[in-house]
Amino acid sequence: MSTRVRALIENEAVRIATAVALAFVLVATSSPGLAAAADAPAKPPGDALVPYPPPSPRVAPPAEQAFTYASPQAYPSFAWLALQVLPSPELAVGQVRETNATGASELTTKTAFAVRWQITPFLWSWGVNRHVSRWRFFVVDPLARHSGSIEAPLHLEYVFGHVDRMIVRPGVRAYFPLVERGEYLSVSIGTSTYAYDDKMRVAYDVGAYVLYGIFGVQATIAPDNGPLTAIGTFRIRYF
Prior knowledge:
Layout: H1 3-30, H2 32-39, H3 78-85, E1 88-99, E2 105-119, E3 123-125, E4 135-136, H4 142-146, E5 149-151, E6 154-159, E7 165-179, E8 185-196, E9 199-210, E10 215-221, E11 230-236
Antiparallel strand pairs: 1-2, 1-11, 2-6, 3-4, 3-5, 5-7, 6-7, 7-8, 8-9, 9-10, 10-11
């Protein structure tokens, strides 16, 4: 190839490159999007999906300060009095000594119907919120009792049949929650003392309670008292 032809080819290539460059500049300056993209600052290194500049953080409003807590204001009411008067039925089982037709003395097992009332002079609950009072006097809400507590109850019960007398039974009892803080199921264990035939007797009881403690069963055992060896109680109680 001669020198003249080579020079013509090089000049033509320069003109084509210059024309392409001028065309690209014209297209870039005439398109606003491309111009803005060209002028935008470079994104910082990191996630390519994060917008730049980053969005402003959401500022949460200040916490509500108007809410407070207070201890329950329990007081005797007509409903409370009506439920205290409602007795819990029970069956008392024991042995009494009787003389048979031949004149011999023998022990006979007897069963008698009875009713029981309960008053709670005071109770201390470890299951309630620590910000409220743990003490209850006479009026005891079910949550305080069955979420975990210890009480000093006073039982009044009248036993018919072979016993046929009123019994006053002070004692101590502890409640322990098993399901849903005792609202569905709780248990108790306790002891009590009472006078029978001019002698002080001691009894022990266990119980289980459902439906917020409204209904339950208790078994009371008095080993040293023949006529009242065992008592089964269907307990009905709310306050």
